[in-house]
Write a structure and sequence with these properties.
The complex is a heterodimer of chains A (390) and B (210). With 390 residues, chain A is mainly alpha-helical. Chain A has 17 helices and five strands. In chain A, strands 1-4-5-3 form a four-stranded mixed beta sheet, with helices on both faces. In chain A, a hairpin with a 5-residue loop joins strand 4 and strand 5 (200-203). Chain A starts with 9 loop residues before the first helix and ends in a 26-residue tail after the last helix. Chain B has one domain (4-168). Helices cover 35% and strands 21% of the residues of chain B. A six-stranded mixed beta sheet of chain B has the order 1-2-3-4-5-6. In chain B, helix 2 (13-32) crosses helix 3. The chains are: A mainly alpha (390), B alpha+beta (210). Chain A binds chain B through residues 127-131, 142-144, 148, 151-152, 155, 158-167, 170-171, 173-174, 250-252, 254-256, 258-259, 280-282, 295-296, 329-330, 333-334, 336-337, 340-341, and chain B through 2, 6-9, 119, 121-124, 126-129, 178-181, 183-199, 201.
């Protein structure tokens, strides 16, 4: 079979001819992979890290082959580096949980992840019709305002004031917020959100009950703190309060907490009842104890005693009685719609964004089938060698 | 401005309409029975309306006709209305200018309710609020020159006389009232988010133009 004499990497040749290169895209890709300048240099036959830094700052331009190698290493097509970065997630506009204790490199990596997710979302937004944004913006000045803001959101989204929510992910997705999950990030980072025309919340992999509270907390930032700097103890407290008030509304939760006998006549908390309430309200026991104290259903002594018990018995990060997770669905549904409308598979989508499929898989957290390897045509002429005779 | 049921889910539209109707009917009957030529004046009218309202509601509650209402009576001339634990005081006059005695009564009932009904839901109020800023519910019956009720307004007020979240009790269908769900209602399950086609929209748009 005759095979045309194709250059080894056609894309690399094209890039060689082109002088267009945007260093910020290289920085974005490298940060997303969590690689240092030295690590990238080492992978590419010991290129000096300073040279990579020059590439990122735009002082130098890579050769076509180097660009192709960078793309190969970082999981992006060459064209990705030849288009400017239109919209990047900035540190100051995003609300990080535990900003002060989250190392800068983790935040930057998370922002790079967010920026790429933003590119994917704006592509999907232009291709298919995603749910319209339905997020109220409320300014709260005191605790009562926050309670009301949470109740307002519940009413606006048809959740009532006294029933549990079966999953925060859907609540946010129905309100037009994109929810995505990180993979392979240190546990220091809980979650972060970014308000915008299409707001996004990105979560780290954690226990389900903690993730639910993370989502409610980020929802609080989106509703209460749009256009305000976040990360201060005050804004974090407000978002925490909102999260508790949203997941455990005072009307319904106070009623059930009392009626269920979660606190016995001697003032001791009953853990079996709390674990049952946890299944029902889909919130960690710690969050319920915190909320019960906030609503003055238990006093400070009971609160303190409860947290000591939890720390000693289960630890603060791993509770008993976790429930099933609700995974984000918006992106996979959008992929499905793109396939129906444009006959594009996720691999084609990755190509349209100039990403490698594995990159798309990491960003969207959606499994992407590997491309089908071409089968040998039955009609192909196979010439058998004659057996060697001596 | 939040509706009453958006602040306190017990104050549903139906319940407020029921109270409004009853209060206006009692007042209308009392006005019809007034005999100014024999010396009846507004003081007698107000007293009669107040007493009749308390007694009629007490009787209805006793018969179980209004399960969501409690009439707490300390003596025949002093009663407090509690809608599932939320105290509500009714007064006649301009809803923007409640008299000081109504404000003091409202606060006293609110505090008393908190103490007496701590086991009931929705008795939570932030502890840090000083008395002057605590909000309680008032229902104002506004009358014309003949003392007939023309409008009933529910509102929140504080001791300083500030009015919040006033709402004219009216059955005009502006929006469905918030549902009040019973205890242990199952968790609210939501549908999957809908992702639609932009192509379909474009096509249908083109067709409509044609």
């Amino acid at each position: 079979m005759l095979v045309p004499n194709k250059p080894k990497n056609e894309v690399a040749m094209r890039a060689k001819n082109s002088q267009i290169f945007f260093g910020e895209k290289l920085r974005l890709a490298r940060t997303f992979r969590g690689l240092t300048l030295s690590q990238v240099g080492k992978e590419l036959n010991d290129i000096y890290p300073q040279f990579i830094a020059f590439l990122e700052s735009g002082r130098k331009k890579p050769s076509g082959l180097l660009l192709a190698a960078l793309g190969e290493l970082l999981g992006f097509e060459v064209q990705f580096f030849q288009e400017p970065l239109t919209e990047a997630f900035q540190d100051e506009e995003c609300a990080f949980r535990k900003r002060a204790s989250t190392p800068l490199w983790i935040r930057q990596r998370a922002l790079a992840h967010g920026t790429l997710l933003g590119m994917l979302i704006s592509y999907l937004d232009s291709a298919v019709s995603l749910p319209e944004t339905n997020l109220p913006i409320i300014r709260a000045e005191n605790a009562e305002d926050i309670e009301r803001a949470a109740e307002h959101c519940r009413m606006q989204w048809g959740l009532g004031l006294d029933v549990p929510i079966a999953g925060m992910t859907r609540v946010l997705e129905l309100a037009g917020v994109v929810v995505a999950k990180f993979r392979d990030l240190p546990q220091n980072l809980d979650a972060f959100s970014r308000p915008g025309t299409r707001s996004a919340v990105i979560l780290n992999e954690k226990s389900v009950s903690r993730s639910e509270m993370d989502l409610a907390h980020e929802c609080g930032h989106l509703v209460l703190h749009k256009g305000k700097p976040t990360g201060t103890p005050e804004t974090e407290r407000e978002a925490d309060h909102f999260g508790g008030a949203f997941l455990l509304p005072r009307t319904g939760f106070a009623r059930e907490f009392r009626a269920s006998g979660a606190c016995d006549s001697r003032g001791w908390l009953r853990w079996d009842v709390l674990l049952r309430l946890k299944q029902r309200w889909r919130t960690s026991v710690q969050a319920m104890v915190f909320r019960a104290h906030e609503l003055r259903l238990i006093d400070s002594l009971q609160y303190q005693r409860a947290f000591k018990y939890i720390s000693a018995r289960w630890g603060r990060k791993h509770e008993l009685g976790e429930f099933d997770a609700q995974n984000p669905e918006l992106i996979s549904l959008a992929f499905e719609q793109v396939r129906k409308d444009y006959n594009m598979l996720p691999a084609d989508l990755a190509h349209a964004l100039h990403w490698y499929p594995r990159t798309l898989q990491e960003i969207a957290a959606v499994p992407i089938p590997s491309p089908v390897t071409p089968q040998i045509q039955p009609s192909a002429q196979i010439i058998e060698f004659a057996p060697k005779t001596r | 401005m939040a509706k009453p049921w958006g602040i306190d889910p017990h104050l549903t539209k139906e319940r407020l309409l029921f109270l409004k109707k009853l209060v206006l009917e009692i007042r209308s009957d009392a006005v019809d029975e007034q005999q100014p030529q024999k010396g009846d004046g507004p003081f007698g009218l107000g007293s009669r309306v107040y007493e009749r309202t308390g007694n009629q509601l007490w009787e209805k509650c006793r018969k179980g006709e209004i399960p969501w209402l409690t009439v707490q009576r300390e003596n025949p001339l002093y009663y407090v209305l509690l809608i599932e634990g939320t105290p509500l005081r009714i007064f006649r006059g301009d809803h923007l200018r409640p008299r000081g005695r109504y404000l003091r009564s409202g606060l006293r009932e609110l505090k008393k309710h908190q103490r007496d009904f701590a086991e009931l839901e929705n008795s939570f109020l932030p502890a840090e609020l000083p008395d002057e800023e605590k909000r309680f519910w008032l229902m104002a019956v506004e009358t014309d020159d003949d003392h007939r009720g023309i409008r009933v307004v529910i509102e929140q007020a504080n001791l300083k006389g500030e009015i919040f979240n006033e709402w004219v009790i009216d059955d005009a269908a502006e929006e469905p009232p918030a549902p009040v769900t019973p205890i242990n209602k199952p968790a609210r399950k939501l549908p999957r988010p809908h992702v639609g086609s932009k192509q379909t929209k474009k096509r249908s748009g083109d067709e409509s133009k044609e």
